[in-house]
Amino acid sequence: MGRAPCCDKANVKKGPWSPEEDAKLKEFIEKFGTGGNWIALPQKAGLKRCGKSCRLRWLNYLRPNIKHGEFSDDEDRIICSLYASIGSRWSIIAAQLPGRTDNDIKNYWNTKLKKKLMGMIPLDPRKLPPFSNSLHTTSSPQSQAFSSLSQLYNDCSPYYSTSAKSCLTGFESFPSVQPNLLFNGNNNNVNPMATITTANHHSYLQGHNQEGLISPMQFYPGKDNMLIFGGTDQASCSSSDGSCSQISYGKEIKQEHMNGGSLQGYNLSNSTNGYDHHHHQENQKFMVDYGNQISSTTWGDGRGNDHDQKPSVVLCGNGTSTTQLQYDLEEVKQLISSSNMSLFFNDENKTHESREAMYYYNY
DNA sequence: AATGAGACCAACCGCACGCGT
DNA sequence: GACGCGTGCGGTTGGTCTCAT
């Protein structure tokens, strides 16, 4: 016996929304909010629609600040990078692209971007150094991500050309990360982050810079198979199904801890399907520094409007000893400007040469 | 002008999860 | 702990549009 349907299928309208329905829904939500109950909303709003359908319509098309139309090159890059890192987790990818919804991105990827990338992949992941071996032998998130990348490459390989463009696709990032940078040879790591030495970092980056392989986006594994990645832009509440629950209108102000922001951590290990969409570990904390202001909240203002401020520095820690980065804004800017992607160190209890590190990327 | 194929994209669907009871 | 409900997610479907023939 399956679960009961969310609504009376016989009495709900399906298919495209009419302008009248749109207007009704919009007006109702702007006036009263969702009331935290999408199932009951259509009846209250006088709509013969399923609650899920209303929710989708609102989040994908009716709420303010939705961006439609062509994707920019930057957006392409972000999508590619994230796809290479985390696969088809569209809601997470959407969170990095203000105004875009996961549905939008998913469609864009499936119909255009994937094809656009055919013939543009400069590296063959199958010919990569040892790093790939460690990925292939586990069901780690890294291996999953690598599988995604490999799969994509395989999909595209018939079209692969050695005269591929030199432009960055974002796919370079994955194969170009070395195993010693990722795992630090310590499986029982208390450190939630992979440790990267300054020496490794610089030689690695510089070497790859020369080859033009620096990616705008990097990931690194943390404790408990945590795959962590970062971005520069503020979070958007762009999941088609409202995965960013700080989207709040009218009377509904719903707080979700540690979900917003350009840095997110996802436990990829304790879910039956291999990943957890948005179920953050309780002991994980991400923080954002807006200059003087340390915020651990979301970027939204509770009314669906993103703040203009972007995080200048992204902080992270193990939840019990989150520390602020020691660099001031100018130093940060200098570091960023010296490289497409820079590392920052944030654990003052460690030496400069071996601090917890995270990637910071900038376009 | 008619038609068929392919592309695009809005919407639907089922599953899994969190939360309250 | 079990259960039911509401929600979020990603995969898939199907209607519409565009273009080639």
Automatic annotation (TrEMBL):
Domain HTH myb-type: 9-62, 63-117
Signal peptide from the UniProt entry: none
Gene3D superfamilies listed in its UniProt record: Homeodomain-like
Predominant localisation class: nucleus
Alphabetically ordered keywords of this record: DNA-binding, Nucleus, Repeat, Transcription, Transcription regulation
CDD domains assigned to the protein according to its UniProt record, in alphabetical order: SANT
Domain Myb-like, chain residue ranges per copy: 9-62, 63-113
A GO MF term: DNA binding
Pfam families: Myb_DNA-binding
PROSITE patterns: HTH_MYB, MYB_LIKE
InterPro entries with a match to the protein in the record: Homeodomain-like_sf (IPR009057), Myb_dom (IPR017930), SANT/Myb (IPR001005)
Superkingdom as given in the UniProt entry: Eukaryota
One GO CC term, this protein: nucleus
Subcellular location(s) per record: Nucleus
The name this protein goes by in its record: Transcription factor RAX2-like
